Amino acid sequence: MRSILIIEDDRRIAQNISRSLRVLGYSTEVAYDGFTGRGLGLTGQYELIILDINLPDINGYEICRNLRAEHTTLPIIMLTAMGEIEDKVEGLECGADDYIVKPFDLRELSARVATCFRRSDLLVSSTGEEVLQLADLTLNTTSKIVQRQNTLIELTAKEFALLEYLMRNQGRVVSKIDLAEKVWNFNFDPGTNVVEVYINYLRKKIDREFTVKLIHTRPGLGYTLKAN
């Protein structure tokens, strides 16, 4: 039975979530304040955390950072009334795997929980496969499977190589020269636009249909992959 910790100060919401997940066969525990929730989460005995942001004693963003620092693959779903894009971006940057805005449907939450568990199983696969992850984007270097929000993304060999290099260097600005040398194995020709063309291909496949954009251009410097 998979164990889930719910950190939510609204007792009605917390109990509704707990009952709904228990019906589906999960084991649940509820913490009604941030300090208790953080302490329980840091024990490592739970397989998924559902976390509110507006808690009375400690901000959910801080809890998420603390949990992510200790447990790098622990699935964390933020559940909050804060629905602005800036709030979602901050939540993902803190390490959350998913972000649901209140009011919400319990069926959607259950589906998101199942998705997080599937993604988590992939990341800790006993086969030793290497999986790179940024926010809700995963890239399996062994099976060559790329997914975003559990949606399969079909890439060509060169698109895959480009995305893999960006994911291995996520958060760092990568120049066109660097990409040309590492992905295409040739000296960069200022007259060619091959890098821009393939960056656009990737954007159409991994960013266009999603709210949070991951590929960012730094004019005159290059490109960076991050969740804002």
UniProtKB/TrEMBL annotation:
SMART domains: REC, Trans_reg_C. One of its GO terms (biological process) is regulation of DNA-templated transcription. InterPro entries: CheY-like_superfamily (IPR011006), OmpR/PhoB-type_DNA-bd (IPR001867), Sig_transdc_resp-reg_receiver (IPR001789), WalR-like (IPR039420), WH-like_DNA-bd_sf (IPR036388). Residues 129-227 form the OmpR/PhoB-type domain. GO terms for molecular function: phosphorelay response regulator activity; transcription cis-regulatory region binding. Residues 129-227 bind DNA. This is DNA-binding response regulator, OmpR family, contains REC and winged-helix (WHTH) domain.
